[in-house]
């Protein structure tokens, strides 16, 4: 079992940056693959980024490639999402996700653990 708590959301102007953090509690954090999804109002929750248990592999949605960077610090049981060049269409609730197998699935229905979400609002 792992519990996830996100932080770092807020209001930012287009072109700005934010860094989200996800603190995990529970056992064996370093064995979990981690990632981020987001859900805009009235839309489905979609994949944003994922990172392998050791941090050596990452995966990104096409819409955020080159702007967002996912990283993790296993000593701190924390995963990060650095978001640069933010756009109004990045506005959403961002959810931290975790699972035990390989690389995190891009399908939300296959995710084992979720955080409660943090709001990111990008103004134009």
Topology, element by element:
Elements: E1 2-7, E2 10-13, E3 18-26, E4 33-39, E5 45-51, E6 58-60, E7 68-73, E8 78-83, E9 92-99, E10 113-114, E11 118-123
Parallel strand pairs: 2-11
Antiparallel strand pairs: 1-3, 3-8, 4-5, 4-9, 5-6, 7-8, 9-10, 9-11
Q: Average the pLDDT over all residues and give the rounded result.
A: 95
What percent of residues are in strands? over 45%
Shape: globular
Helical residue percent? under 10%
**Terminal-residue CA separation:** 40 Å
* Helix and strand sequence: EEEEEEEEEEE
Radius of gyration: 13 Å
Structural class: mainly beta
Main sheet record: 7 strands, mixed
Which regions are unreliable across 5 or more consecutive residues at pLDDT < 50?
none
- Summed up, the helix count is 0
Number of strands: 11
Q: What is this structure, in a nutshell?
A:
By secondary structure, the protein is mainly beta. It is built from no helices and eleven strands.
């Amino acid at each position: 079992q792992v519990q996830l708590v996100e932080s770092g959301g807020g209001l930012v102007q287009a072109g700005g940056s934010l860094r989200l953090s996800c603190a995990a509690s529970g056992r064996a954090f370093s064995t979990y693959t981690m990632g981020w999804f987001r859900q805009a109002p009235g839309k489905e929750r979609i994949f944003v980024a994922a990172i392998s248990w050791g941090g050596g592999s990452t995966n990104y949605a096409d819409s955020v490639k080159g702007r967002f960077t996912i990283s993790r610090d296993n000593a701190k049981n924390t995963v990060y999402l650095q978001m640069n060049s933010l756009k109004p269409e990045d506005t959403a609730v961002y959810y931290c996700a975790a699972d035990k197998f390989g690389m995190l699935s891009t399908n939300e229905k296959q995710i084992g653990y979720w955080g409660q979400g943090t709001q990111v609002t990008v103004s134009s």
